[in-house]
Amino acid sequence: MTIPQPTESHESGPAGHGPVAGAAPDEFAELLPQTRRALLHRLAVGQAEGRAPSLMGAVVRGGRVVWTGSRGSVEGEAPHDDVQYRIGSLTKTFVAVLVLRLRDEGLLRLEDPVGRHLDGSPVPEATIAQLLAHSSGLAAETRGPWWERTAGELRPEQADLFDERPQRLPAGRRHHYSNPGYALLGALVERLRGGRPWDEVLRNEVLEPLGMGRTTLRPERPHASGWAVHPWADAVLPEPAEDTGLMGPAGQLWSTLQDLCRWAAFLLRGDGRVLSASSLAEMRTPAVPPEVNAWDAGYGLGVQLVRRKDRLLAGHVGSMPGFLAALWTDAEEDIAGVVLANCTSGPAVAALAADLTGIVSEHEPRIPEPWHPLPGPLDPELLALTGPWYWGANPHILRLRDGRGLELTPLSGTGRSSRFRAERDGTWTGLDGYYAGETLRVVRDEEGSVSHLDLHTFVFTRGPYEPSAPVPGGVDPEGWRV
Question: Where is this region: Disordered (predicted)?
Fold first, then answer.
């Protein structure tokens, strides 16, 4: 183990990286010099003030790695993007994707109690969604000693992870981060995949399709050593890198900057071989209420959510003895930031990864995708549904979207917006907002002409309070007056 020594910093742009999974051609991939300098400056400040033996950062935009940088050294050399670091709780995002794959295959429902699929759970009535969102009420940590610095052999059975009071809070009431909860999810994956180890399932179903060959359960050279930095002296102490056994799904994985950039692009855009963009968007949806004093942060299904300067970021931070990691994605800007460090504490990697995305967004706002017509053929009956509709006297616009989807938007500034997915039975299902999950139907009269839209008892008509329409409660027979 080589004590870290100073080296020259490293900074690069997209050259040599190319597109990661799901990337599209982008003539604006090359960052401007002032943006690159601002990114390197932020990384350098983070490494110097955080006193990290080494610190790496990257930005992914439009599915491409547009910038990487590093400071410090690993084994006496400047770290490069193929050096492994331990990524801690970023592992949970991988486990969550495995669980969502099981759901999408119909092998489980997120509403299922975990005891339906996994024997011996200390919270058999808690749902799979609650385990994903840390709202099962399970204890934050395992039975002692501290699992992150001790061998997994100390807890060889699932029951060994929990003490006599495994559940600290009622299930479903509030967010309470639980590392053992993800050990249960890893066991759930193994159970529903025929007893195969969860990391083998991950490699076959996720890592190999995405080209992430350097993400592994145990470190493979080249990899960084983990260090603790003395709080009051510029001295370092090596940290152990134990195999945590059954707790692996909570924070065992090692990865590289290059692999994590691929993971960030996937989390933003999806990949049909692994998980759809719609399921990933579901992961980013808040699943539990925020704590009383934490309205700027929350948790979805396996991902942390934070709001910074009116930007919603989704991802995760991770820490294990000797290592820190952070990955944030901004779906609206299609941008992500990744940071890796090989020290137990010091650099604020969560803020640093968020700042990397913010610097690019502020210096070089996203160029919108070019507008193009919908792919044909165009259904004239659907086109005839578009335009103004009225809920009572409140005007709305119905627009046609790709895949026969619809979007309903109020014109007056008050009202509820939603997007709708077309169903095979001729109805539409709300995707977001107040109408999420609700059914939109086109109602026709006896002659087959469109009469009105029914959105779960809300009647939308072509005119404001049309007397001929079935407006609930009826319309005054004298009509509008002055």
Answer: 1-23
